[in-house]
Amino acid sequence: MALSEAQINAVIDRADRGESLTGLAEEYGVTRQAVRGLLRRRGIPPRRSGRLTDHQREAVVRRYLEGASIAQIAREVGVSEPSVRGLLLRRGVPLRVHTLNHGAFDELTPTACYWAGFLFADGSVTARQGHLPTVSVGLAECDRDHLVALRTFLGSTSSISAPNPKLRSCQFAVRSTQLADRLLQLGRYTGSVNEQLTSSRDFWRGVVDGDGSIGAYAKRPGGPLSPQFRLVGRPRLLEPFVDFLSERVSCNLTVRPHKTIATVGTTGRPARGIIDLLYRDAETALSRKAERAAAIVRAGDHLVLRVRSAES
Fold first, then answer.
1. How are beta strands 225-233 and 212-218 bridged, if at all?
2. pLDDT (tens digit, 0 to 9) for every residue of the chain, 312 residues total?
3. Do both 227 and 158 map to the same domain?
4. What domain of life does the UniProt record list for this protein's source (predicted)?
5. CATH of the domain at 146
6. From the CB of residue 21, how many other CB atoms can be counted at a distance below 10 Å?
7. Do residue 155 and residue 209 come from a single domain?
């Protein structure tokens, strides 16, 4: 994306006053490297890493009081989280004490099974030396309410990031050794997935909400719409899903290679049966998929819906 002369002048002025190059890049829809190159060509030296201007210090305090997290602010201004925390303490800003239910997955209730499935599909568990493990998930801006529901389940008061204007996505993360260890123990990345999870329709609904698609398509132009179900993922997760369905729905699914991962899917009555099994009377689900599922099941064998193409 090319910047106008007015935008270039604004970027130069704001960068020279100490604003974050990353923040400017996101705001103007260009890369951080592009902003650095622009400054270099105009003879403006880059800001020294780890040093904040008075303007930036004021912005740090303002952003924190507006509700931004310390981690988010640190990324924006290009310093460490301890630096931001220390600045706030020196300015006399009371730090927020966030709550979190570290044992949210200790008991595998239906709701816990659902969120475990969702995090298995769309979430990540990461750890860096010297930091607490992080459980995080990012969703499209239109699904922000689902992150709010996850935050409520976890008993967390941590903030959800503001939507990224370029990617139209938002992020939510919590730090907890207990939560991270529990998800890994349940089989998030290695080993077999916990049997209580693999026998739970709530768990599989969470997985489908994260990495699946449901919809209805015409097999020929102008013809009636037929339900379609599809789930992508690693074979170690899809194979238990096929086993789960084989005992409950009349279908004959096979895990098939798909690019670097795998997929299972079907259409027609088997697809509707799977959708009905997972979503009927569900208390927790991604709202747009739950609405689409209800329409498909409600239509039965007379599916003449104007359902848009399935969305992941």
1. antiparallel
2. 677 777 777 777 677 656 667 777 777 788 878 888 888 787 766 554 457 888 899 999 999 888 788 878 887 888 877 888 889 998 899 988 889 999 999 999 999 999 999 999 999 999 888 788 999 999 999 999 999 999 999 999 888 887 667 778 888 999 999 999 999 999 999 999 999 999 999 999 999 999 999 998 887 887 788 899 999 999 999 999 999 999 999 888 999 998 889 999 999 999 999 999 999 999 999 999 999 999 999 887 555 444 433 444
3. no
4. Bacteria
5. 3.10.28.10
6. 23
7. no
Q: Tell me the two tokens of residue 188.
A: 């998030």
Clarify whether residues 203 and 270 are in a common domain.
Answer: yes
Burial (0-12, 13-18, 19+ Cβ within 10 Å), 122: buried
Residue ending a domain, among 15, 30, 47, is: 47
From CA 5, how far away is CA 154, in angstroms rounded? 47
Total domains present in the chain: 3
Range of the domain at 121: 110-185
Q: Which two tokens stand for residue 73?
A: 């602010």
Q: Burial level of 134, CB count in 10 A (0-12/13-18/19+)?
A: middle
**What DSSP character marks residue 238?**
H
- Tell me: do 140 and 205 sit in the same domain: no
Structure token pair of residue 229: 């179900």
Beta carbons of 159 and 65 less than 8 angstroms apart? no
Assigned token pair, 297: 């099941």
Residue with tokens 């489908």: 208
Question: Does pTM top 0.90 for this prediction?
Answer: no
